[in-house]
């Protein structure tokens, strides 16, 4: 009797399971349709409140218009969130989902998983995700005028969200003031990824719009943007990734000045400098090493021009005075650029190498191989002399004794 009842129960369960599955499949399109209508209504209301809030309304209370816009935005996000859970989730569960919908749900859960451990990141990234989802839907299903109208709101809100995300990462780095911290490697990675994502998704969209104010911003970084394009395709090696991140940082100094403040940008540059130095030190193939070295020299120049030369507040006055002398030398050498370009390049590299030797001489990381490589460069440029049976150093640098060869350093 027990075996028979189990068999009967199994048959009944399967029967009802099949019926339930069929009913769910029939209801899913209806659910999507209902959610779509609700989203359209909420979106249209949001766009109206956004347009009222952003245009000049002398006869209206601006605080009241802002509140209406914020309320409309909240309701709109709730409708999008409901769409993910009611429609996409059920379609995935019933194997009716497209590849896009499967990826959308996977990304939704990935973002939701941040809620407990990284709430601020979750808060901004969930909003960004829902807006991206609806923007993709609008591009596929709406008329040109609707797309153009939505993009004005979309660009504005995404600007705010990206800045908030980067500001959150900046706060996380704040306790390691002015110093690259390898224990927070994941934050640096996220910063570079977020800047790149913004350029691909929002900056490129701005370039397609006719908004003059947005285009002025783009004009200031157009040369850097064009350089970046070559790194957006194909597989990148370590050198390419460092160069790409160097360009991303340069662009961020124009776009994210406040949300990615100078002190955080400095730590990001220091992270790239460490990666570049290690690459030069560890690369054994001569041609690849020379390319890595050229990239390091360019990075040092970028760091000096685009960051240190703009730095107003220095915690250590001695470092500020030291940099002033170094910067004066650089400006003097720069005068050679139009007179004798080869000599300009030689003098500039000598200056950068000597300064970098000072910077890395007392660091915890073992840069002995890099220093040896630097010294060989200085000898080749005639800035150092090799002496036998003795070691002579001048200036602030102290090196290790080499029994076979010794080098005189004029710093």
Keywords:
mainly alpha, 2% strand, 411 residues, disordered C terminus
What is the 3D form? elongated
Instruction: State the order of secondary-structure elements, H for helix, E for strand.
Output: HHHHHHHHHHHHHEE
Q: Major beta sheet, specifics? A: 2 strands, antiparallel
Q: Can you give the helix content as a percent range?
A: over 70%
Describe how the helices and strands are arranged.
Elements: H1 2-54, H2 62-93, H3 99-112, H4 119-141, H5 144-173, H6 185-208, H7 212-229, H8 238-255, H9 262-282, H10 286-306, H11 317-334, H12 341-360, H13 368-380, E1 384-387, E2 406-409
Antiparallel strand pairs: 1-2
How would you briefly describe this protein structure?
Helices cover 74% and strands 2% of the residues. The chain has 411 residues and is an all-alpha fold. It has a domain at 12-135.
Structure description:
This protein has a two-stranded antiparallel ribbon with strand order 1-2. It has helices at 2-54, 62-93, 99-112, 119-141, 144-173, 185-208, 212-229, 238-255, 262-282, 286-306, 317-334, 341-360, 368-380, and strands spanning 384-387, 406-409. Helix 4 (119-141) runs antiparallel to helix 5 (144-173). It has a domain at 12-135. The model is unreliable at 1-13, 15-32 and 389-411 (pLDDT under 50). The protein starts with a helix and ends with a strand. The protein is mostly helical and 411 residues long. It is elongated and about 85 Å long. The protein contains 13 helices and 2 strands; from the N terminus they run αααααααααααααββ.
